[in-house]
Specification:
Helix content is 86%, strand content 0%. By secondary structure, the chain is mainly alpha-helical. The chain is globular, with a radius of gyration of 16 Å. The chain has helices spanning 2-17, 21-38, 41-57, 61-78, 81-97, 101-118, 121-137, 141-158, 165-179.
């Protein structure tokens, strides 16, 4: 059953990345049943994060918040600072998009520190794009450009392309800064 949970989790992630949110949700819910049955909290936390991403993309922000919060709780319970950093960053992104810049920056800063400490340049790149977006929304273009420069350096470091999640996040913020 462990392998079944991992398979459903991976399919949930794949469907989310491909924009097939209903399929992602079905796989994620199946993964949660199995991971809870076998007691695999780490995979359960990851699935909750994937489900949060899909919910966010579909505009189901309350669901996204619930999934990211559950992912954060699990990460803290099992001592996974990388997953904790990712969940904090995602919660920060939700606050950023809601216009709560102070809370967004607080959460993003906490997540960024954990991802730096964990040595995770891929996920750090994406959270740096969110930091750049937060600075841009506050009108601090210099800080936005600085965060984006580091974001782009991390993307290059790991060989992530423009279609990767950090690559897409970076491109969106570059377009905002360059476009006004």
């Amino acid at each position: 059953r462990y392998t079944e949970g991992v398979l459903h989790s991976n399919l949930c992630n794949l469907h989310t990345d491909e924009g097939r949110y209903d399929a992602a949700r079905a796989c994620g819910e199946a993964a949660l049943v199995v991971t809870r049955a076998v007691g695999n909290r780490r995979i359960e936390g990851g699935v909750r994060s994937f489900l949060g991403s899909g919910a966010q993309m579909q505009g189901r922000l309350d669901d996204a918040h619930a999934h990211y919060t559950a992912s954060l709780v699990i990460a803290r319970e099992i001592g996974e600072p990388r997953d904790e950093g990712w969940a904090l960053g995602r919660l920060g992104l939700l606050r950023l998009r809601a216009g709560d810049f102070d809370e967004a920056e607080r959460l993003i800063t906490q997540g960024e520190k954990l991802l730096r400490d964990a040595g995770d340049p891929y996920d750090l790149a994406e959270i740096l794009a969110w930091r750049a977006e937060a600075a841009w929304r506050r009108g601090d273009i210099d800080r936005a450009r600085s965060a984006l420069a580091e974001c782009d350096a991390r993307i290059a470091e790991v060989g992530a392309g423009p279609l990767s999640e950090p690559g897409k996040a970076s491109a969106q913020v570059h377009a905002r800064i360059d476009g006004g």
